[in-house]
Amino acid sequence: MSAPDPRRPSVVIVGAGPRGTGVLERIAANAPELWGDAPLDLHLVDPHPPGGGRIWRHEQSPLLWMNSTAEDVTMFTDETVEQDGPVRPGPSLAAWARAVRDGERPAPPGLADAVAALGPRDFAGRRLLSGYLRWVHEDAVAALPPRVAVHEHRTTALRVSGAREGRQRVWLAGRRAPLLADLVVLTLGHLESQPAEQDREFAGFAARHGLTYLPPAFTADSDLGALRPGEPVLVRGFGLAFVDLMVLLTEGRGGRYTTGRDGALTYHPSGREPVLHVGSRRGVPYHSKIGYPPSGERPPLPRFFGPAEVEALLARPGGIDFDRDVRPLIDKELGFAHYHRLFTAHPARTRMAWPDFEAKYAAGEPGGAALQALVRAAVPDPADRLDLDALDHPLDGIRYADGAALQAGLRGHIEADLARRHDPAHSPDLAVFLALLSVYGQLTRLGDHGPWWHGFFSFLASGPPGPRLRQLLALSRAGVVRFLGAGLTVTADEARGVFRAESVSVPGERTEARALVEARLPEPSVARTRDRLLHALHADGARATAGGLLAVDPTDGRILDRAGRPHPRRFALGPHTDARAGGAFARPRTNAPAFRQNDATARALLTFLRDRTAPPVPVPALTPRTDHAVDQ
Asked: What InterPro entries would the database entry show (predicted)?
């Protein structure tokens, strides 16, 4: 296999996980229109196999699941996606698995049983998803024009150099000569960060006293062996990272569940589990995934927070204040979706015709007294009214007499959430979920909007599968998990040499432990990232937002410098940018923002190469190859 010809146009994509694969798929879809049959080299740089990347790699515990049902995961666009490029249809995860079962596609090695057992409403294991993502990658490569060659480099990109107007040089670990690139795209996914100040303090405290401290990290990569059987472990964070931790430290250590006649789970410990004392700012786990399919009329979204409203915000002199300018529009959009579904699907629970309510709701000031009075008059049961503040802070004002009362109270909260999220009588919850997706699609154009929105979205829309919460209840009843409550604070007691946790839910009660786990992913931060490439870009002049994200042009993902100028040859997509879309995979027929971004970036790449690169020298097509450089 010959090396790439330096005379050929080339694009380097750093990160070959789902986002990099999505860009590759859009290049394949748009190439016939914008590039034709000219030669082109595409270089994929990632130490992990393409498709799944690090987070969705095959080599992780088979106990870990996806967080979406198989029918709600797709890597392919459809006619709902607002894009300039063509739709290239492809199967959802569920449809792909069905095709494998039917013999239309080969089964990934070692996954035939998992494919056979997967139903459309099931939550696939991450290993199975990795097989789907690998197939999507191979399908995208096969769809490229014959003179486009793909080269894999199983290593890490260290830095990018080169003038704005010239070819870029991408320096790789284990390789002396850089890759020459006309364009560079960063699709880095979730990255590790240098510890924040308190993380450093806790790490130092643990080292001085011989304690265990696990900082924020992707749970599958954490060294959990230091957490000893039977010992109390403080866990700060009650989201999806905690769910993975819970699984790996219980079933992952040999425990098992049985189901009683009433359907309730019982956990049977192996004796190797620690005791997990978990709390957070809210004090409760993320809301369960909704357990019923959509039906009937969907809310017509966007309605109060769409492209026109975003254009008006962007044109506002003096900039945008999120709480003042954006949050009221979000609240009104979510409320509209909720009440549209309530009035159209459950009219017996309302006192007004929908057209009358809709007209008055549209005229009301978001959060204003008139709107509140309208809802009280038209929706008699307070349980049918949308209270976003109560949803965001479910334990506010609730105090428990002691730890035992807190355990019972939290189990009741989780049971009620499971019942509601699996009952179509509460289908306005699903309408709000769809509105959250719509809002996220608009927010990508507004840049960094602070920490509240992403946390609120994740709490309502990105919670665990219902079966995971049923397991949590069983672990609580078995005493393997104990709840700490809301407003959690953790301190280091130098005199006693322990970590101490307190919450506002049980005033005066303290829990001590010699181990502390931060159950959350590192916050994306350009300044504190451990990724050498991203750190070097920032040092060389790439702009970071006040929230620590890499600033990009929302129209095509070009990286902005500190003067706000887009770099003509460098692009970035993903959670480290201020145009990040939701963390979940795209659902079919939802006009997913990641698809729109991928298409815009792919078209910008191909248009740049077509219009500004010197006519390529006619050379024969190269055979795609994999370059296994050594990562250092």
From this structure: HpyO/CreE_NAD-binding, L-asp_N-monooxygenase_NS-form
